[in-house]
Amino acid sequence: MVTVTTIKSAAETALDSAFERLAGVLPGAGAERRAAFARYAERGLPHRRVEEWKYTDLRAAMREAAPLAERPASVPAGTIDLGAPRFVIANGHVVSAPEKLPDGMTATPLREALTGGHPALSALGDPLAAGNAAVDLNTAFMTDGLIVEVASDRSMDSPVHIAFHNTGDAPFATAARVLVRVGAGASVTLLETHQGPDGVAYQTNTMVEIVAGDGAKVEHARLNAEGGAAIVLSTLSLRLGRETELTTVNGVFGAALSRHQVFATFGGENARASINGMALLSGSQHADSTLVVDHAEPGGESRELFRTVVDDEAAGVFQGKIIVRQKAQKTDGRMMSGALLLGEASAMYNKPELEIFADDVACAHGATCGALDEDLLFYLMARGLPKPEAEALLLQAFVGEVVETVGNGAMQDALIARIETWLRARAAR
Amino acid sequence: MIEIRNLVVEIEGQRILDGLNLTVRDGEVAAIMGPNGSGKSTLSYVVAGKEDYEVLDGELLLDGQNLLEMNPDARAAAGVFLAFQYPLEIPGVGTMTFLKAAMNAQRRSRGEAELATADFMKRVNAAAESLGISKDMLKRALNVGFSGGEKKRMEILQMALLQPSFCILDETDSGLDIDALRIVSEGVNALRDPKRSFLVITHYQRLLNHIVPDTVHVMAKGRIVKSGGKELALELEANGYADYRDMAA
After folding, report:
1. What is the mean pLDDT of chain A?
2. So what's the pLDDT on residue B248?
3. pLDDT band at B174 (very low <50, low <70, confident <90, very high)
4. Is pLDDT at B237 greater than 90 in this prediction?
5. B88 and A379: CB-CB below 8 Å?
6. CB–CB contact B102 A380 (8 Å)
7. For residue B87, which residues of chain A lie inside 8 Å, CB to CB?
8. Does position A4 have pLDDT exceeding 80, yes or no?
9. How buried is residue A210: exposed, middle or buried, by Cβ count under 10 Å (0-12/13-18/19+)?
10. Which whole-number Å values give the CA distances from B136 to A74, A352, B102, B143, in the listed order?
11. Is B72 on the interface with A (CB under 8 A)?
């Protein structure tokens, strides 16, 4: 008999011993954690020979597994403020909650829910993400987070901001989890910001799950302003009821390596969702957007629009899979990923996939990769704009199409400000 | 004054301009006519500074400044304006954003202060009104969804706002109906000035009924092969280019 021994990487070994040490300490009964860690451990950290991770070799990128961060003693200074009621989750621990939530909204820290029990806990976890290593690791290590509940038929009078703020001078890891249950007919805007120190090789793994009841309206936007040396894994799970309307936009500026995964299940008839993203990448940044959109019920409409600008030796990845189940007739899915490559060594990997089992559907996908249009540049320069300014105007317009889909003004302004900063830095080089 | 001396230009090894000489004095409106493929559009792109062309020989001087050493934006700030034959659509770039960026970039390049928003708006609104450009057009992305005539009017609007000293109109009459041709021509005529010169490239005499030139030049095979007054355009309209096709050979 042949015995196959898997050689574990240093990070995998460190994750094993960290879990062994922490499994009994982390909040909650632990059975779910153990099951999740076992699922992860079966295959280890995903690498380039795992199809879904082909372009983002996490095993190679994650040389070490940093220790899980403790709850900071105080609320970190300089947390992004969007002028909305704000939760601050520092290093994976809730350290601050708004004095007043919008009427009809309640929130419970996840640590408290896991320790004392909470009826919503049974809703944690997304079958569509089964077997995903980032999700399993988040479930195994989650330290804290939130359970947010929005009462049915209530329209929230203000957005809610969840600010994930990472701080520290030495490498650390975080694992936060947020579950948002939006009642039938309710409407809510959720804003996520993620920030952290430059130059510290921290590792974050967050998961946000939004379960939208029938007829709910959800606006969600996320800003990745993480530190330049961070490895950032994030998962957004969307479970949409009948006739829900949802928009989510992800703006990527930070992190050495980031992977934002969206798992969207159209679990009720005639649900509509727009899943959009933009990224501005430079240096040796690597940013991955991976989507799995599952049309399980008829009449769903999904729109995906991604724009990636890649400079220097940076690399962008877009993987988008649309599944249309046999039952999901009259599904209308359109997915578009566009990339502009600015540097000689810039790279973009586009992988759109359609799996269609129904016969009466309209599905389309497109992917483009290219340089800035020389004719457009000439036109602008012929009107007096110096080349860097002409390029900046075209780049801003390119990602602007995604930014326009952010409904919340403060978040839109925050994204535009970061785009302008990025473009100014580029022009100054 | 623009002086073009012995200009030799190739694109991908093919000679397009072959020793072209042309001077347009301050205040002069010069027309260039010529058969397809004679190099008229290439001349306009080379003057504006498009990169695709290889200038092998010759001089290109605007008021004594050597344009060949300048990037397109520096040429624009120095006073060159090309009204494109096919103005480009730029999705996502608002018309007003673009106009303001262009005006201020040129002002900065000349060491002038940037325009205050109120001043800018006043200038744009006045110029737009005289060209029949609606507020709605100004709110849209540059040239996106504009008709052929609207795009040409937008070119003239830019010309009016940027106040160049040398304007090239590259087949501005193409794709225009009679009314649009009149509006565009009136816009150009309003900008005629003793200090401003024009080079009007066209296939047809029709445009020159509206924008009456001081001089007419016939271009063939990359050179000016005949020059004369405005009556030369009428002669071409009657006889065609047959007499000139072989002159440059």
Report:
1. 96
2. 53
3. confident
4. no
5. yes
6. yes
7. 379
8. no
9. buried
10. 52, 37, 20, 12
11. yes
ipTM for the predicted complex comes to: 0.96
CATH number assigned to the domain comprising residue B65: 3.40.50.300
Using a CB-CB cut-off of 8 Å, the residues of chain A touching B92 are 396-398, 400-401
Q: Edge-to-edge, what's the strand order for the sheet holding B29-33?
A: B80-83, B166-170, B197-201, B29-33, B215-220, B223-228
pLDDT digits (tens, 9 = 90+) for A404-413: 999 999 999 9
Distance CA A285, CA A347 (A): 11
Name which of A381, A394, A400 is nearest B72 (Cβ-Cβ): A381
Supply the pLDDT for residue B247: 64
- Under a CB-based contact definition with an 8 Å cutoff, are residues A398 and B92 in contact? yes
- The beta strand positions in A21-119, using DSSP E, are 86-90, 93-96, 105-109
Q: How many residues does chain B have?
A: 249
Residue B176: the pLDDT is 87
Rounded distance, CA B72 to CA B89, Å?
Answer: 19
Q: In this predicted model, what pLDDT tens digit does every residue of A303-342 receive, in sequence order?
A: 999 999 999 999 999 999 999 999 999 999 999 999 999 9
The candidate with the shortest Cα–Cα distance to A232, out of A254, A262, A209, A265, is A254
CB atoms within 10 A of CB A6: 10
pLDDT of residue B10: 96
In tens, the pLDDT along A53-66 reads 999 999 999 999 99
How would you list the strands of the sheet with A362-370, edge to edge? Answer: A93-96, A86-90, A160-165, A187-195, A217-225, A245-252, A272-281, A301-310, A332-341, A362-370
Q: Residue A392 to residues A264, A341, A370, A399, B104: CA-CA distances in angstroms?
A: 33, 14, 16, 11, 15
Total number of domains constituting chain B: 1
Domain that includes residue B52, residue range: 2-245
Cβ(A28)–Cβ(A21) under 8 Å? no
Say yes or no: B73 contacts chain A, CB-CB below 8 A: yes
| Alpha-carbon torsion, ordered A27, A29, A32, A35, to 10 deg | 110
pLDDT at residue B240 in the model: 85
pLDDT at A264 over 70: yes
CB B54, CB B125: distance < 8 Å: no
Q: What is the model's pLDDT at position B246?
A: 65
- Domain chopping of chain A, boundaries: 10-268, 373-429
Q: What is the pLDDT of residues A162-175, one digit of tens each?
A: 999 999 999 999 99
The average confidence (pLDDT) of chain B is: 93
Sequence length of chain A is 429
User: Residue B189, Cβ neighbours under 10 Å: how many?
Assistant: 13
> How is chain B split among helix, strand and coil, in percent rounded to 5?
40, 25, 35
Min distance A58 CA to chain B CA atoms (Å): 36
- C-beta of residue A409 within 8 angstroms of C-beta of residue A84: no
**Whether B101 and A396 lie within 8 Å, measured CB to CB:** no
Percent of chain A at pLDDT > 70 equals 99
Please provide the DSSP assignment of B19-76 as one string: EEEEEE-TT-EEEEE--TTSSHHHHHHHHHT-TT-EEEEEEEEETTEEGGGS-HHHHH
Task: Decide if A418 contacts A225 (C-beta within 8 A).
Answer: yes
Over residues B26-36, mean pLDDT: 94
Torsion, Cα of A342, A370, B141, A253 (10° steps): -50
Q: Is B48 on the interface with A (CB under 8 A)?
A: yes
The SS3 assignment for A80 reads coil
pTM of the predicted model as reported, rounded to 2 decimal places: 0.93
**Residues on chain B touching A382 (C-beta within 8 angstroms):** 48-50, 72-73, 75-76, 80-82
